[in-house]
Amino acid sequence: MKETYCDFIAGCFGGACGVFVAHPLDTIKTWQQASNTSVPTAITQIFKRNNGINGFYRGMFFPFVTNGAINSILFGVYGNHLRQLRRVCHSDYQREQLEYKNMFIAGSIAGFVQSFIACPIELIKVRLQTHHYYNKYIYGKRRTPMWMFKRIVQMDGFSGLFRGLVPMMCRDVFPYGIYMLGYRYTTTYLDNTEFVQARRRQRSDEDTEVDFVVTTLAGAWAGILSWVCVIPFDVVKTIMQAEENRKYHSTTHCIIDNFQRYGWRSLFRGSWMLVVRAIPFNAATFLGYEYALEWCHKYFQVQTRGPKFI
């Protein structure tokens, strides 16, 4: 049970760290996808329409708080399912042979579960980030997460909070399996390099077992690897969530309409910014997660077994 608490606490802290570092890049990416503009144009519009640099941090408080909860669920569900999959193995040899497969399955299950929690949160975040593009200055009310939540429910009902759920599940389920698997595989590979082993011999007297360089590189690479194959689904999700008039009836309708109007490139807009954002976001997420997990294990006196990353 203490291991479960540690997974949830560490996931929450890691998610908050990721948002704090990468939110300005997320704002640029979201604006670019919603408005079909280039990176320089998106930056200029955000700066002008939001009265300066504060526009890049628009809607940050809400995901800063809620993304911790999302990652708490993600890493908590992942850790619990991975331990369950390990327990059904009949021997250590079988457990070792199935480890990567189990990590992928546990990550995919975690991505499926967290998508139902993350969808309403991302919807509100996207609406806050792009409100000045779609609505300019029509509304004089202060745009807070609660104001946007009430507006969505009034216009579309409770089901409106889950707009874009299908493309979000396509974006999150299997890619989170790749995400967890990619991180573990990369850390294992880097741990065996001469450079990392030499660094660890030099810092053998330190209290922490977390390697800053390995965790940063592995987290960044895992983020890139999991995102690069699902960019069109993220674009479609953003488009469907940003517009308020329910122009698109389904995910397929959104894909076909944008393909016919703007060409295939429209389904990959914001891809460079998305990849660039993935580097600091996931590096910070895993750094926060690993340090918090290590602290929790020490505090609750949890005896870790097997790999460091659960």
Automatic annotation (TrEMBL):
It is found in: Mitochondrion membrane. GO terms for biological process: mitochondrial L-ornithine transmembrane transport. It holds the Pfam family Mito_carr. InterPro entries: MCP_dom_sf (IPR023395), MCP_transmembrane (IPR018108), Mitochondrial_Carrier (IPR050567). It comes from the Eukaryota. The keyword Ribonucleoprotein does not apply. It is a multi-pass membrane protein. The keyword Repeat applies. Belongs to the mitochondrial carrier (TC 2.A.29) family. PANTHER family: MITOCHONDRIAL BASIC AMINO ACIDS TRANSPORTER-RELATED, SD08189P. This is Solute carrier family 25 member 45. It comes from Stomoxys calcitrans.
